[in-house]
Amino acid sequence: MEFRIEPASPLPIYRQLRNQFRQAVARGDLRPGERLPSVRELSRKLVVNPNTIARVYTELEREGLLNTRPGLGVFVAEPRHELTKEVRTERFVELLDGFLTEAVHLGFSQNDVLSAISDRVGQFAWQA
To answer: In angstroms, what CA-CA distances link 115 with 54, 104, 111?
Structure first.
């Protein structure tokens, strides 16, 4: 998996990387049990401060996407669904409302939005 830093982006580097990791897991590019590069290794490769990589790994571990195995490294975690269906649905609707609000303000029609979703949905790794 290749990670990229966009220096001109208004997003801080740690958020760029966090988003890329989350998307890679969602798309199935990073699979449960897969070992990630060490903090030092990834910071050297991307030419960023090791504390930035450590922050990303810590946040993703807190979210349940990664887990650290002492002496072995950092790995993609097995998916967990600790939240109830009701709470997950509520959070999803909030995100969806934000997405749809933005689409309306950008001037997209309902058909544009549905078409874009249809085109993109196949790029993600859906669980049964």
So the answer is: 38, 14, 6
